[in-house]
Write a structure and sequence with these properties.
This protein has 254 residues and is mostly helical. The protein is built from six helices and no strands. Helix 1 runs antiparallel to helix 2, helix 3 runs parallel beside helix 6 and helix 4 packs antiparallel against helix 6. Pfam families: Spectrin.
Length: 254
């Protein structure tokens, strides 16, 4: 009777493993939304816990069959053969579910990381847009233009590392068919805004550089003119002091 019960337990264990394999490993999942992906991760975590909890039951079965084999070798031998099959299948199931759980957790982590990089770069784009807007309607003063140019250039020196991460993470998920529509839409919107703002910022940078160069040249010309006028004023004052007749002066002084 004990052998019959153990045989029944082994059959039930095998049946449970077959159902678990069908439910957790043979489904074709299409992760088209973050909610679907998150639910799949949570389901696979529960599956891993569920499978690992059966380890106690498997150990009890193993111990009982060993005890029976010691007492009744003939009955125990057949059960031991069946037990080895169950143990092998159970270990395989554990490994496969662990592997799938790990894969889904990595995919979810990749999605979260992508969102974090997108948030960082979006904040940078917002800052860049604000700096570009500050360059509009500037006072016609050298200091104001110089400060605006320096401020814009400091933002443009932003490293490209985050954008590289966004591209690689997005492509990895898309290649796996995971959230591909959502990610493609996000990347398309981000890249379009990045191209538009970066081109606008570089164009405004060039304009400010040219404006600043013109203002510096004008400032230099005014400074030279002021120095020449001061020298001429000194000469004229000297002539007046010496009571020199205008017709005795050089033509330019007249």
């Amino acid at each position: 009777e004990k052998a019959v019960n153990l045989k029944k337990d082994l059959a039930e264990m095998q049946e449970w493993m077959t159902q678990a394999e069908e439910e957790y490993l043979e489904k074709d999942f299409e992760y088209k939304s973050p909610e679907e992906l998150e639910n799949a991760v949570e389901e696979m975590k529960r599956a891993k816990e569920d499978v690992l909890q059966k380890e106690v039951r498997v150990k009890i079965l193993k111990d009982n069959i060993k005890m029976l084999a010691a007492k009744v070798p003939s009955s125990g031998q057949d059960l031991a053969t069946e037990l080895n099959v169950v143990l092998e299948n159970y270990q395989l199931l554990c490994n496969r579910i662990r592997g799938k759980c790990h894969t889904l957790e990595e995919v979810w982590s990749c999605w979260i990381e992508l969102l974090q990089y997108l948030d960082l770069e979006t904040a940078w784009l917002n800052n860049l847009e604000e700096r570009v807007q500050r360059t509009e309607n500037l006072p016609d003063k050298l200091d104001a233009v110089s400060d605006a140019l320096e401020s814009l250039e400091s933002v443009l020196r932003h490293p490209a590392d985050n954008r590289t991460q966004i591209r690689e993470l997005g492509q990895t998920l898309i290649d796996g068919g995971i959230l591909d529509d959502i990610i493609s839409e996000k990347l398309e919107a981000f890249n379009a805004r990045y191209e538009e703002l970066s081109h606008l910022a570089v164009s405004r940078q060039i304009t400010l550089e040219q404006q600043l160069q013109t203002m510096r040249e004008t400032d230099h010309m005014l400074q030279v003119l002021q120095e020449n006028l001061a020298e001429l004023d000194r000469q004229l004052t000297s002539y007046l002091t010496d009571r020199v007749d205008a017709f005795q002066m050089p033509q330019e002084a007249q």
